[in-house]
From TrEMBL:
<dbReference type="GO" id="GO:0006099">
    <property type="term" value="P:tricarboxylic acid cycle"/>
</dbReference>
<keyword id="KW-0816">Tricarboxylic acid cycle</keyword>
<dbReference type="GO" id="GO:0047545">
    <property type="term" value="F:(S)-2-hydroxyglutarate dehydrogenase activity"/>
</dbReference>
<keyword id="KW-0274">FAD</keyword>
<keyword id="KW-0560">Oxidoreductase</keyword>
<dbReference type="Pfam" id="PF06039">
    <property type="entry name" value="Mqo"/>
</dbReference>
<comment type="pathway">
    <text>Carbohydrate metabolism; tricarboxylic acid cycle; oxaloacetate from (S)-malate (quinone route): step 1/1.</text>
</comment>
<keyword id="KW-0285">Flavoprotein</keyword>
<dbReference type="GO" id="GO:0008924">
    <property type="term" value="F:L-malate dehydrogenase (quinone) activity"/>
</dbReference>
<dbReference type="InterPro" id="IPR006231">
    <property type="entry name" value="MQO"/>
</dbReference>
<dbReference type="InterPro" id="IPR036188">
    <property type="entry name" value="FAD/NAD-bd_sf"/>
</dbReference>
<protein>
    <recommendedName>
        <fullName>Probable malate:quinone oxidoreductase</fullName>
        <ecNumber>1.1.5.4</ecNumber>
    </recommendedName>
</protein>
<comment type="similarity">
    <text>Belongs to the MQO family.</text>
</comment>
Amino acid sequence: MTTTIQKTEADVVLIGAGIMSATLGLLLKELQPNLKIEIFERLDVAAAESSDAWNNAGTGHSAFCELNYTPELEDGSVETKKAVKIVESFEVSRQFWAYLVEQGLLDNPESFIRSVPHMSFVWGEKNVKYLKKRFEELQKYHLFKGMEYTEDPNRIREWAPLIMEGRKGTKKLAATSMKIGTDVNFGALTRSIFNHLQKQDGVKMHFNHEVKDLKKYEDGSWKVKVKDETNGQKKRVKAKFVFIGAGGGSLLLLEKANIPEGNGFGGFPVSGQWLKCVNSEIIEKHQAKVYGKASVGAPPMSVPHIDTRMIDGNKALLFGPYAGFSTKFLKNGSYFDLAQSIKLNNIKPMLSAGIKNIPLTKYLIDQVFQSSEDRLKALKEYLPDAKKEDWVLENAGQRVQVIKKDKEGRGVLEFGTEVVNAADGSLAVLLGASPGASTTVSIMLDLLGRCFPEQLATPEWQSKLKEMIPSYGTLLNDQPELADSLRAHTAKVLKLEN
């Protein structure tokens, strides 16, 4: 019996129904409304992997409190380049979300963004000295104006009373606070964007559909092979442009696409867990995202934080994440993912990256074998009065850190996001993790420049981008008045209590 293969054509195929695909799909549809877009998601709902609130290690990353974005260099100075880039990017995201709300494309901003102060908190002479230097360096940039620094325990208690309850001893403490910090539920935001997109002409969304293979035609377009997991139906989509935003699953699809630009890329999976508070009295006492310093050897997404979030309309309090190791590339993935990703063109970079990152491997193994007492001990460094019965363990998401070749062909483990695109711009893939979600709009604008350069140069696209993102093409740190004006405007539209 011959199986009938359903064949269709599209201008754009988006693989993976996370925040990246949602943002790119909406940007393209606003810029060129007549585009035919098809979206394929292997699960039965959108944003169930990296974009989901329980799986997302960082919500509202804006570099206000994340110390791993401002490393201390060997000469004792503090590097601020990455933090400044991230805060600029987050402001772009805020402008885009405000535009969507103003245009009625998204309802109820409180469903996905809330005001939550961002704090950094350290103890010990060396760490206090570092935090003060960090504060002084960041004050040189306008977007960090408003940040407060203190070494006064009473002031810290005013900002976050829970972290000071039961704290004894004479250890020196320091903290910074940024009141305009936010909590963003990227799962809720992603689903809202897709709800809007599905109502648009020319947009088709397919759940329970897994992309099995990609092959390039001679005319530069792509054949995307898809299987409907509900009935076994096979589909073929001919697409002018393909975006792979499948979280940890992107690497395996990049390898199937077989573009030269993807040679040498590998992935190192890192899993995570949270301690979730189940005592409502404790949850109500805390209203901040409080980040500390990571342990030696820890990956950046494992920076410990005691974190106020809004999830499904309820206030939640999390501590972690505790890192771990799994060979899966997705939370709903296969234990064979890591083995399947090893190819002749990336085995050398992956092995050399593994050798260079033995401390990370040791750290992850130690984390895997942590007892509940070990986890409670880590929590008590932030909440000295924490009691075991008030917290339960919750699985977080799966991250795949990028391994790429250096000039000598050796592997470098990257802790950011990486866009890989075909030279002709017909395919783009997003790899990596933090601070991905918060900087999605900037990442997708960069992607437009790589893959749609001719359209991007037209007056029509330029004008529309300026309408959606008023600061487009400029740096807000260089324009204090514009920065203040846009922050005030977006805060009003998004109903933030700045």
